[in-house]
TrEMBL record:
Binding site residues for substrate: S353
Keywords linked to the UniProt accession: Amino-acid biosynthesis, Branched-chain amino acid biosynthesis, Magnesium, Metal-binding, Oxidoreductase
InterPro entries: 6-PGluconate_DH-like_C_sf, 6PGD_dom2, KARI, KARI_C, KARI_N, NAD(P)-bd_dom_sf
Binding site for Mg(2+) 1: D291, E295
Native species: Ambispora leptoticha
GO cellular component: mitochondrion
Protein family according to the UniProt entry: Belongs to the ketol-acid reductoisomerase family.
PANTHER family noted in UniProt: KETOL-ACID REDUCTOISOMERASE, MITOCHONDRIAL
Protein name: Acetohydroxy-acid reductoisomerase
Length: 417
């Protein structure tokens, strides 16, 4: 097992990986790691997908080095040696787990007596349940009958009474319960879910929000069950699409409660079964803080604000919609961002003026201010209607209608039409 100081390290790489949502493009290559002697054995496993900022890998000759240690775990009734890799990320050593550590035959044997109950069928629920089903696990889905998600599940081949049940039925039948409802729904449904989480079961999350902010959500897991997390660094649709392509999403893994003594093995094995290419360790709290800051920062919120501000300034100064969009969005997404993904940003000049904004954002996430605002908004009975209005405003704004026309002119788009 990893040292305690590594699990609790304040130098979490949750932030490092949070901005690499579409993970398949950011891989270490033999060229970038030519000096790593052990890399030749590493690349023999094409499923490996170790993502780091290459600016950190290449800057100053710093190189990620693979180191092996061994963890003897009592699996399948006998001791089995598993290779655990420690990587050096810019001076901080971290443990990572690969898909090759848990081949399909191994996790199928490990979970042969388990029923995996997936609660919720949004992007994560559908993606993870379908991947686990395709990987040969005994998966059932729990949903509100005849709702929109129920109808989606029927289209995906889930059968009522066989592997599609009401939420309470699924939790009762499941030995491992994957709570993949939205944050607001987890708060709302927790009182009726908790009585079915009986001694010996395992509760699984893909976001630590409900547990970390228990004072706001009321989600306090029973003390006699394992509580684990696998958090894919991408949308559920990406989890599914990468799986179908034979690739793997990056995920973080954490243990909140280990009653059985096997919680870490369950988490890592499930992480692989739902489509992870590799997993890095975090804690519930670090995952939540980094995720919320990332979503409100460079992954979504800040990007839209920056795009719109620059676009409007250009338009106000006489630039056409096509020119303003190309100089704002198209050049960024089609030219600069891929270069950043490949080469890092060690050529940047001075963009540190934004740092105080993110420091304030992190403070609001950590003290619960932003969390309460988000939870209140998402719990509103008119949330979906209000969201649709906001999204429609963005969709119909000039910047994004201009963008549709610009994107339609890309050669690859025209060849498909």
């Amino acid at each position: 097992q990893p040292p305690t100081n590594m699990m609790n390290s304040s130098r979490s790489t949750s932030f490092l990986f949070a901005s690499l949502k579409n993970s398949s493009r950011h891989r270490l290559t033999p060229n970038s790691l030519a000096s790593v002697k052990s890399f030749s054995s590493y690349v023999k496993r094409p499923s490996s997908c170790i993502n780091v900022y290459k600016s950190q890998v290449l800057k100053g000759g710093v190189v990620a080095q693979l180191k092996n240690s061994f963890d003897v775990s009592p699996l399948f009734g006998h001791s089995q040696v598993r290779t655990i890799k420690t990587l050096d990320f810019g001076g901080t050593k971290e443990i990572v787990y690969e898909r090759s550590d848990w081949p399909k035959e191994k996790f199928q044997e490990f979970f042969k007596n388990d029923t995996i109950a997936v609660i919720g069928y949004g992007p994560q629920g559908s993606g993870q349940s379908l991947n686990a089903r395709d990987n040969g696990l005994n998966v059932i889905v729990g949903l509100r009958k005849d709702g929109r998600s129920w109808k989606e599940a029927l289209k995906d081949g889930w059968e009522p009474g066989k592997n599609l049940f009401s939420i309470n039925e699924a939790i009762e039948k499941g030995t491992i319960v994957l709570n993949l409802l939205s944050d607001a729904a987890q708060k709302q449904l927790w009182p009726e879910m908790k009585p079915h989480l009986t001694k010996g079961k395992t509760l699984y999350f893909s976001h630590g929000f409900s547990v970390v902010y228990k004072d706001l959500t009321g989600v306090i897991p029973p003390k006699d069950i394992d509580v684990i997390m696998v958090a894919p660094k991408g949308s559920g649709r990406t989890v599914r699409s990468l799986f179908l392509e034979g690739k793997g999403i990056n995920s973080s893994v954490a243990v909140f409660q280990d009653v059985s003594g096997k919680a870490k093995d369950k988490a890592v094995a499930l992480g692989v079964a739902i489509g992870s290419g590799y997993l890095y360790e975090t804690s519930f709290q670090r995952e939540v803080f980094s995720d919320l800051v990332g979503e409100r920062g460079v992954l979504m919120g800040a990007i839209q604000g920056l795009f719109l501000a620059q676009y409007e300034v250009l338009r106000a100064n006489g630039h056409t919609p096509s020119e303003a969009f190309n100089e704002t969005v198209e050049e960024a997404t089609q030219s600069l961002y891929p270069l950043i993904g490949e080469n890092g940003m060690d050529w940047y000049v001075d963009w540190y003026s934004n740092k105080p904004v993110f420091e304030e954002l992190y403070k609001k996430v950590a003290d619960g201010t932003e969390t309460k605002r988000s939870l209140d908004k998402n719990s509103s009975p008119t949330y979906r209607e209000e969201l649709e209005v906001e999204l429609k405003e963005i969709q119909d704004s000039e910047i994004w209608t201009a963008g549709k026309t610009v994107r339609s002119l890309r050669p690859e788009r025209k060849s498909k039409s």
